[in-house]
């Protein structure tokens, strides 16, 4: 069967996109054809990696300098999407035309809508030969009454409606009685994890989702603050971005949790982040389903969740694989967190049950049910309305022509590219079915030869842009080993004979080559890097083929869980100094490694602030023991402040910075001061930093509050505004070294 899904914006992120992608991938794995029609395209490529067998067709391209962006019809209001639908204002007369044109022309056997407004469009305009399916990813109480009236009007043309929970199916039947419409439950699916499950011995609570008021992360942070009092050493990580980031950061500072609660930002792949935790936390006011709950459970994390409508209670078995708490009970939520955090045996039992119970959400199982339902309806439909025969590949209306660029045996969706092919030869190639077998490299070489025409130049640019995207490079997984070395895993199909990984230092141009060897199971090849193999710096990772050609690697799964617990978890052997390598994804999507190699190092473990001092606890890695510390002013006016380094009973060295002494030395309105420990017997000074950590860029993640000194400043050397206020704040540099900034601007 051929399935066509109509979605709002497949190029973004969100639960609906992930759910659709999981279902679509399972369908193509089962041998079906899948096409995803994205009403909007706002980015050059999808945020999630999409199986190349899935054809993505953007209907309206609103990227910069695209004709659709300035099309006057895009400024006229939509009459297809109801005015009270949540995203009505995003739609227009142009989107109406493209949606209707696509639905009327599709040759799919099954046409699926994915939100109320699009479901209504499917009901009204999908062809008679196709099975019409409405997927409801929103809960019924979030659908406006006017939209429900439209549903009652048009859903008699819908063959099958799906909700993601049983409770929502019951609400659909009672609130929207639609004669003849079959209503079933199809939960969102989560694929089998590509990494081993969490080991459960960390002291990290993990939450993930957009930073939105409905997620109530403020409640989670407050509850964690209460639970952490009785659970020393635990931290909370919140993954995601959104409008509440600043407000949550302010709450963290206000509660003094700056060294325990971290806003980690968004991750493309959460699987390698869940496994760093021991407990998953959900604090939402409502969840239409709870995809993050399933993902966490599949990776062996028990879940503490608010018992919010409607998803969590249908996923979590209270007391077996997690705990459910009434949504308005902050004390109860804190108590539930405390219970799971304190009891290692309970967490282990719940983790085992979580893995077993979440297997029912496997995409293959749910896609099989979905396909069987659709096949049953399709057989009935074909008995009455046979599917029209098509003798030639059609061209979609409204500028939906597919791209001339081919990759992996399938056409790339690029609706505007064909219009740019004015060169006669390239245009002939573009319009021929043989284009499917033309590689990007071949077209690029041909375009370079025929560069005399302006249209050919535009095509060259489009090809180079597409060819340079990280999505087109070879992919590797990377694991940080217990000895802090690295192991890469690459699909054997992408590894030519004699292949190797090549790491190049961006600054020194040093090159390290690591051979690829077959794994024990055959489908993948492995490359292992010793912990002492790299000097300090940032390294780009390439795949080297047998002909000496290098290609930048893309990361898929970066498993750095061994570093997530910091030095307290004993990841460092008895080495002199410190060597650690951290794989990460660059801003342009490629694989790189940040390496630190120091003969002596002071690893920051805690930073504590009060109104009079900054206290830093660090672990010493190196010969002897430090005999003191110093703060040094950065820049062309050097100054130093000598500090004591006091050994503590837990094996750390404690440094206290008196703020009065520091601010008395300042000469400017903005000064940076760097921390050092002094080696014994007149040895070199050693920078303090946080290297045994899985965060590459700590500036946003480690957000220490400013200490504001309320006393007035008397500084003769600097011309001042009236009554300036001194502010002092510790921070990590781009190299993860600890510094302090002193500011006296109002």
TrEMBL record:
Keyword Glycoprotein (UniProt): no
Keyword set, alphabetical order: Glycosyltransferase, Transferase
Domain Glycosyl transferase family: 199-354
Keyword Glycosyltransferase attributed: yes
CDD domains hit by this protein: GT4_AmsD-like (cd03820)
Pfam families in the cross-refs: Glyco_transf_4, Glycos_transf_1
Domain Glycosyltransferase subfamily 4-like N-terminal residues, every copy: 13-188
Protein name, per record: Glycosyltransferase involved in cell wall biosynthesis
Species in which this protein is naturally found: Micromonospora coerulea
The organism's taxonomic lineage, starting at the top: Bacteria, Bacillati, Actinomycetota, Actinomycetes, Micromonosporales
């Amino acid at each position: 069967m051929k399935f066509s899904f109509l979605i709002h914006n497949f190029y973004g992120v969100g639960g609906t996109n992930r759910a659709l992608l999981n279902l679509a991938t399972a369908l193509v794995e089962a041998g079906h054809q899948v096409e995803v029609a994205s009403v909007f395209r706002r980015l050059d490529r999808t945020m999630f990696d999409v199986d190349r067998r899935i054809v993505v067709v953007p209907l309206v391209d609103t990227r910069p300098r695209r004709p659709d962006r300035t099309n006057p019809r895009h400024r006229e209001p939509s009459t297809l999407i109801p005015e009270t639908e949540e995203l009505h204002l995003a739609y227009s007369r142009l989107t109406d035309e493209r949606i209707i044109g696509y639905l009327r022309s599709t040759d799919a056997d099954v046409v699926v809508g994915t939100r109320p407004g699009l479901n209504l469009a499917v009901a009204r305009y999908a062809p008679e030969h196709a099975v019409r399916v409405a997927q409801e990813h929103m809960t019924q109480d979030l659908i406006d009454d006017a939209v429900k009236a439209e549903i009652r009007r048009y859903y008699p043309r819908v063959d099958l409606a799906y909700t993601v929970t049983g409770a929502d199916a019951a609400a659909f039947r009672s609130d929207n009685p639609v004669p003849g419409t079959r209503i079933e439950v199809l939960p969102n699916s989560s694929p089998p994890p590509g990494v081993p499950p969490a080991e459960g011995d960390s002291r990290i609570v993990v939450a993930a989702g957009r930073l939105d008021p409905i997620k109530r992360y403020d409640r989670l942070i407050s509850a964690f603050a209460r639970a952490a009092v009785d659970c020393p050493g635990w931290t909370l990580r919140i993954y995601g971005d959104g409008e509440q980031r600043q407000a949550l950061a302010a709450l963290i500072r206000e509660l003094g949790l700056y060294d325990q609660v971290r806003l980690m930002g968004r991750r493309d792949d959460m699987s390698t982040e869940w496994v760093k935790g021991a407990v998953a936390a959900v604090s939402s006011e409502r969840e239409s389903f709870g995809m993050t709950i399933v993902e966490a459970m599949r990776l062996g994390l028990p879940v503490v969740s608010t018992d919010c409508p409607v998803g969590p209670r249908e996923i979590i078995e209270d007391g077996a694989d997690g705990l459910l708490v009434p949504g308005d009970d902050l004390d109860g939520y804190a108590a539930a967190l405390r219970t799971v955090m304190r009891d290692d045996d309970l967490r282990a039992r719940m983790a085992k049950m979580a893995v077993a119970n979440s297997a029912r959400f496997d995409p293959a199982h749910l896609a099989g049910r979905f396909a069987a339902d659709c096949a049953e309806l399709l057989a009935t439909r074909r008995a009455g309305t046979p599917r029209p025969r098509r003798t030639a590949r059609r061209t979609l209306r409204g500028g939906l022509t597919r791209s001339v660029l081919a990759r992996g045996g399938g056409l790339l969706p690029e609706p505007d590219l064909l219009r740019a092919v004015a060169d006669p030869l390239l245009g002939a190639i573009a319009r021929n079915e043989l284009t499917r077998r033309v590689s990007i490299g071949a077209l690029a070489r041909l375009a370079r030869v025929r560069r005399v025409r302006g249209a050919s130049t535009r095509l060259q640019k489009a090809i180079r842009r597409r060819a340079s995207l990280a999505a087109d490079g070879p992919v590797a997984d990377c694991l940080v080993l217990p000895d802090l070395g690295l192991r890469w895993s690459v699909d054997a199909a992408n590894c030519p004979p004699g292949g190797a990984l090549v790491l190049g230092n961006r600054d020194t141009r040093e090159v390290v080559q690591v051979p690829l060897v077959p794994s024990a199971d055959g489908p993948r090849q492995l490359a292992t890097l010793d912990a002492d193999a790299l000097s300090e710096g940032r390294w780009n990772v390439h795949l080297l083929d047998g002909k000496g050609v290098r290609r930048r690697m893309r990361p898929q799964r970066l498993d750095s869980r061994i570093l997530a617990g910091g030095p307290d978890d004993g990841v460092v052997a008895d080495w002199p100094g410190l060597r650690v390598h951290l794989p990460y994804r660059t801003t342009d999507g490629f694989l790189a490694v940040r390496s630190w190699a120091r003969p002596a190092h002071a690893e920051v473990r805690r930073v504590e602030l009060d109104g009079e001092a900054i206290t830093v606890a660090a672990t010493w890695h190196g010969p002897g023991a430090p005999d003191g510390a110093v703060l040094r002013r950065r820049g062309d006016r050097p100054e130093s402040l000598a500090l004591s380094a006091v050994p503590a009973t837990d094996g750390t060295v404690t440094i206290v910075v008196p703020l009065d002494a520091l601010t008395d030395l300042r000469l400017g309105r903005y000064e940076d001061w760097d921390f050092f420990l002094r080696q014994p017997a007149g040895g070199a000074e050693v920078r303090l930093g946080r290297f045994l950590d899985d965060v590459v860029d700590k500036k946003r993640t480690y957000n220490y509050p400013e200490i504001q000194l309320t006393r007035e400043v008397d500084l003769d050397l600097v011309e001042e505004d009236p009554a300036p206020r001194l502010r002092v704040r510790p921070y990590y540099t781009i190299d993860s070294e600890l510094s302090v900034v002193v500011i006296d601007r109002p």
